[in-house]
């Protein structure tokens, strides 16, 4: 394997692996499997097959010397067995198993050691933006949908406060100090915000403050999204 790269998206982990033929002869990759660790389920993301000029389909598994093939996998945490808080300490995501055959009929196999990801840096409460327009009109309201994830092992009683002073070119047009209710461990909560842009150009969205009313702990969420105002 030439290299690999991990990206965290919401709770899923996307793994991109690059496999290069370093032999002096062509080879056929018979099988490339990601064996996930016990904490994840895995699915391979495959591109659609494309036909060549002769109408037949090209096999992406045939590698000439120095050729590189990319593989993409999505790993989803088994949240039914563990809380999201547990996954903050999990860095091992699985092993990549490769089987090949050279043009001379010689077979080979290589299994990597445990592949690692960077541990996420969020705390007990995580906010993600589920939907926001890329482009909006000046002085016209638009909506943004957010999601809160309880990554702790206890219920959170939450309230939402909006601070307009941190984004002078964007105004919140919804209620501040809203009681969001109780969010149970390993659960999510959706809410919608309405905003009014007052200045053209690329604008950041900041100023969301979510408070755990029991511990009186406030989670600050700034620059959570960008919109282009025309």
Automatic annotation (TrEMBL):
<dbReference type="Pfam" id="PF23643">
    <property type="entry name" value="TRAPPC13_C"/>
</dbReference>
<feature type="domain" description="Trafficking protein particle complex subunit 13 C-terminal">
    <location>
        <begin position="133"/>
        <end position="229"/>
    </location>
</feature>
<protein>
    <recommendedName>
        <fullName>Trafficking protein particle complex subunit 13</fullName>
    </recommendedName>
</protein>
<dbReference type="InterPro" id="IPR055429">
    <property type="entry name" value="TRAPPC13_M"/>
</dbReference>
<dbReference type="InterPro" id="IPR010378">
    <property type="entry name" value="TRAPPC13"/>
</dbReference>
<feature type="domain" description="Trafficking protein particle complex subunit 13 middle">
    <location>
        <begin position="6"/>
        <end position="120"/>
    </location>
</feature>
<dbReference type="Pfam" id="PF23647">
    <property type="entry name" value="TRAPPC13_M"/>
</dbReference>
<dbReference type="GO" id="GO:1990072">
    <property type="term" value="C:TRAPPIII protein complex"/>
</dbReference>
<dbReference type="InterPro" id="IPR055428">
    <property type="entry name" value="TRAPPC13_C"/>
</dbReference>
């Amino acid at each position: 394997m030439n290299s690999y790269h991990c990206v965290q998206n919401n709770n899923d982990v996307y793994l991109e692996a690059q496999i290069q033929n370093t032999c002096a002869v062509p080879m056929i990759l018979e099988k490339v499997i990601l064996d996930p660790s016990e904490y994840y389920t895995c699915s391979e993301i495959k591109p659609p097959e494309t036909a060549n000029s002769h109408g037949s389909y090209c096999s992406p598994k045939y590698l000439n010397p120095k050729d590189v093939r990319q593989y993409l996998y999505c790993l989803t945490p088994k949240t039914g067995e563990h809380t999201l808080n547990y996954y903050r300490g999990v860095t091992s995501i699985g092993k990549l198993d490769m089987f090949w055959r050279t043009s001379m009929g010689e077979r080979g196999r290589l299994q990597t050691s445990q592949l690692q990801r960077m541990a996420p840096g969020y705390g007990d409460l995580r906010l993600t933006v589920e939907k926001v327009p890329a482009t909006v009109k000046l002085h016209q309201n638009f909506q943004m949908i957010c999601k809160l994830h309880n990554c702790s092992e206890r219920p959170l009683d939450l309230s939402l406060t909006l601070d307009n002073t941190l984004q002078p070119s964007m105004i919140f047009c919804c209620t501040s100090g809203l009681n969001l209710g109780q969010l149970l461990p390993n659960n999510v909560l959706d809410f919608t915000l309405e905003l009014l842009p007052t200045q053209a150009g690329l604008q950041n969205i900041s100023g969301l403050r979510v408070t755990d009313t029991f511990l009186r702990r406030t989670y600050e969420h700034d620059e959570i999204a960008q919109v282009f105002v025309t």
